[in-house]
Amino acid sequence: MSKQDYTNTSVQEPPLDYSFRSIHVIQDLISEKPRTGLRPLRHSKSGKSLTQSLWLKNNVLNDLKDFKHVVSQLLEHPENLAWIDLSFNDLTSIDPVLTTFFNLSILYLHGNSIQRLGEVNKLAVLPRLRSLTLHGNPIEEEKGYSPSLLHRQYVLCTLPRVTTFDFSEVTKADRTTAEVWKRMNIKPKKVRIKQNTL
């Protein structure tokens, strides 16, 4: 199967689903059996999954140590990973390893322990990210936080390609409000010009 054929068919493949498995560390995925769905998972000749979706929701993960290494052992084409569900775990930050999956378009991080809204900045390098969830994190306890204002505006300014945030479609009005919020709250970086001294 060519890489192009793989990309076209794997979008419709069921996820590799390790939800509700009480997984504490990523390395446990190697020995753990994924959940079975209505449709069976397809595998390559080497035994790796042909999916582009990895679901790890409702576990007890507090970090993603060795994530890339383990994913490469589970998926035939880890570089094509498009959907990662890490919701309802104990993650305290957005691990930079997630930014190495450039085809990532859906990332669920709701119901974790992420405390700093600035963690979102790391995701700006993902060119295909379209859907993100963050609700149910301690970010909501930040002074002045309002899910409909600060949080949403900051995310939309930082990640302008996102079309769905916290399961809510991003509208033209959201974009306009985010742009106004950005002008009022985010100071532009000063550009320093080196002067030639003769």
Automatic annotation (TrEMBL):
Going by the UniProt record, its keywords in alphabetical order are: Cytoplasm, Leucine-rich repeat, Repeat
Per the record, the major location class is: cytoplasm
- What top-level branch of life does the organism fall under? Eukaryota
Give the SUPFAM superfamilies listed for this entry: L domain-like
As for subcellular location, the record says: Cytoplasm
Q: Does the keyword Transport apply?
A: no
- Matches recorded under InterPro entries: Leu-rich_rpt, LRR_dom_sf
Q: Which PANTHER family match?
A: LEUCINE-RICH REPEAT-CONTAINING PROTEIN 51
Q: What is this protein called?
A: Leucine-rich repeat-containing protein 51
Q: Which organism is it from?
A: Ceratotherium simum simum (Southern white rhinoceros)
